[in-house]
Amino acid sequence: MRSVGRAVAFCRKRSAAFGELWRRSLQIRVVVSTLALSSAVVFVLGMVLQSQISDRLLATKTEAAVAQTMAAVKSVEPALTSINPVSDDVQLRLASALSELTNSSDQQGTADSVAGAFEPVFAYDERDLSSWKAVGPYSDVPAGLRAGVQKGSPTSQIHTVDRNGDRTTFLIVGAPVPNTLQPLQVYLLFPLTTEQNTINLVQSTLVVGGLVLLLLLAGITNLVTRQVVRPVRRAAEAAERFAEGELDERMVVIGEDDVARLAESYNQMAESIQRQIRQLEEFGQLQRRFTSDVSHELRTPLTTVRMAADVLHASRAQFPGGLARSTELLVDELDRFEALLADLLEISRLDAGVEELAAEAIDVRAMVERAVESVRVIADNAGSPIELDLPEHEATAEVDARRVERILRNLLANAVDHGEGRPVVVRLAYDEHALAISVRDYGVGLRPGEAELVFNRFWRADPSRNRHTGGTGLGLAISVEDARLHGGRLEAWGERGEGAQFRLTIPREQDVELGEKDSPLPLRPEDASSEQVPEEVTVTPQPAEVSTVDGEVDAPAKLERHTQEREEVR
């Protein structure tokens, strides 16, 4: 049973390998298909040719044998016309005639004979017609042939005779001898050995010729297919290298045929793509340089404004109420402006690819706790308590603590902003190769398709919502890049009315590559409902109050309203 199982497994393995080769190789498909069709055609033609040759040989043999039988009847007719079946010398006279025909057969067995050698048989009926007597191998004559001869006409039949275990095929021709006193029949047994040898030779020739023809067709098909497939393979290899970043890869143009046109078209396409890629790279470099330069240039006046604002903020107790409030709003906006400049510089460095990962092996649990504590006050003010679900044992991984902690702060701030005052759950899990952290909120959730948009820069699902954390709109975009630097990924799930969950998955060691589905935590939370998604609820923003003093708009109220309007635009 084991040997049978191994044989079945081997056959399945070979079948799978051939199936993969069949799917991936155009040349194999063409050669095998050509061989299959050619084999069918050669087989049909071989059968037709063999049938035609066999029928023609047998027809010629039969025609000659019948003519020779009639000639034999005429040659023995004078000696057998007056034979008396009841006389004592009937056997002697029949034996003499049989000997004469036998000698004639030996002479006709030469190369110039038409029907070839034969074995004669004489059969005569006794007086009461109840039985037949014969001279020669009368038992080899089949009953059907005897019945046909008894009707008075020459008859032929192919019959195989078994003589002492040696089977021989004969063409037996029988004819009645006229003008005899009693019914007398002559049978000539022509062996078909020569014809059978000829048919066997033709058959073997057809088989060998067919195999040789198939091999030649396979070789020719393989050669022709290779001439067609080789340029296509070169084009595919060139396209693969081009896709890997070798933008100078080109095909060699040989001749003026269709393959040459393919190479020319490919080269033109590659030139166009390379030109556009370079233009985009130059534009991206200019854009990153502009962002970096603007950010740096804004730092100098911003520093001056910050110093003045800090002085005003420190003396706000001496100001009237409205002016003190304006000072606080000014400091808050400066904080956000500085954070925006820092994020712009960070995203420009990430786009330029100059950021490096300072990874070290640490216990990620402590880092998660620090990130939670950094947003604890904001979460408590928003009414969203943060719950931790951490493993009991150490969860070590090679990470850049600053970047991963920044990812967690962004995810927690996002959960608090959209949590609708409900709890936020942070989970940590790990396996042999990967570590995952999920942040789950039970707020408004995401519409279909928004899970792919949340990581876009400055994208907001609902611009009318106010942020509790004062984000810049670049936090999730930076978090995605930080996750990619670790060789991991940041993913989002959400449903309207069910909340949202963000999952960070990173390898525990930097030399480990993660698959698309490798993660210790599910992306869709276990407590998510499988029921129909509730209808979308539209939230209408309320206008801010504007207070007036002596018929004029109060400056602090105007500044606060302007701040809210900027928040709505973001």
From TrEMBL:
Pfam families: HAMP (PF00672), HATPase_c (PF02518), HisKA (PF00512). GO terms for molecular function: ATP binding; phosphorelay sensor kinase activity. The chain crosses the membrane at residues 30-49. Residues 507-570 are annotated as: Disordered. Residues 293-510 form the Histidine kinase domain. It is found in: Cell membrane. InterPro entries: HAMP_dom (IPR003660), HATPase_C_sf (IPR036890), HATPase_dom (IPR003594), His_kinase_dom (IPR005467), HisK_dim/P_dom (IPR003661), HisK_dim/P_sf (IPR036097), MtrAB_MtrB (IPR047669), Sig_transdc_His_kin-like_C (IPR004358). Gene3D superfamilies: 1.10.287.130, 6.10.340.10, Histidine kinase-like ATPase, C-terminal domain. GO terms for cellular component: plasma membrane. Residues 507-527, 555-570 have a biased composition (Basic and acidic residues). The keyword Transmembrane applies. It comes from the Bacteria. Keywords: ATP-binding, Cell membrane, Kinase, Membrane, Nucleotide-binding, Phosphoprotein, Transferase, Transmembrane, Transmembrane helix, Two-component regulatory system. Its main location: membrane. Its EC number is 2.7.13.3. Residues 226-278 form the HAMP domain. It catalyses: ATP + protein L-histidine = ADP + protein N-phospho-L-histidine. Signal peptide: none annotated. It is a multi-pass membrane protein. It is an enzyme of class 2 (transferase). This is Sensor histidine kinase MtrB. It comes from Herbihabitans rhizosphaerae. The lineage of its organism: Bacteria, Bacillati, Actinomycetota, Actinomycetes, Pseudonocardiales.
